[in-house]
What does this fold into?
Amino acid sequence: MAVTDLWLVRHGESIANIAATQAERDGRERIPIDIRDADVPLSPTGCEQAEALGTWWSEVGPSIDACWVSPYRRARETLQIARGADAAGPPAIVDERLRDRELGILDLLTRRGVAALHPEEAERRRHLGKFYHRPPGGESWADVALRLRSFLRDELPRCQRAGLVVAHDAVVMLLLYLLLPLEEQELLDFAASHTVLNASVTHLTAGPAGWELAAFAEVAHLQVEGAPVTVHPGSPDVELD
It folds into this structure.
């Protein structure tokens, strides 16, 4: 039996999401957080969102036979809280290829900070575009797509029916790019008008013609449980153009 459903979940709101959004609003150059990206935990709201995700898990979880999660704390916490005491589902496989995009020298900088402290990178980004711009010490979206190609090649064959990935907004976007598939401009246009919401669920289905997008960034489970819906757009270089 071939895999027919793939569920993509973004982690709940993290304390870094809050800090980054506030820093952008305040016009700061740097995001005031001193925890490495891999160790950033969920915020109290993020924990509430992950608990609400448990409603979705109780309905869909029994059909899932393969489960993968980013090694970053916020993703692992989201899955752990959502699953609760459910020990019947498949074990969660931690895969470093699902980690968030690495920003290198632009890490913890706001858009204002990038323009002020690394104007040459802002110019390179304008010239190369979001998909191919690789900050020194970091990754482009193309780099993330490359490691995700490896993940799909190695891991999808483990799945007999339905799989779940719990990771980050860039990972969700780039899995859509690979599986639908999309051209570079199609991806950039889609990303510009769609945000992967915290603790949202994106659903892909496989048919005779390939993968199709059945639902994007659904948050009905949050609304049912009364958990806040939060909008944190991800990488701070998204509006450098």
In short: The chain has a mean pLDDT of 94. The first strand starts at residue 5 and ends at 10. Residues 5-225 form a domain with the Rossmann fold fold (CATH 3.40.50.1240).
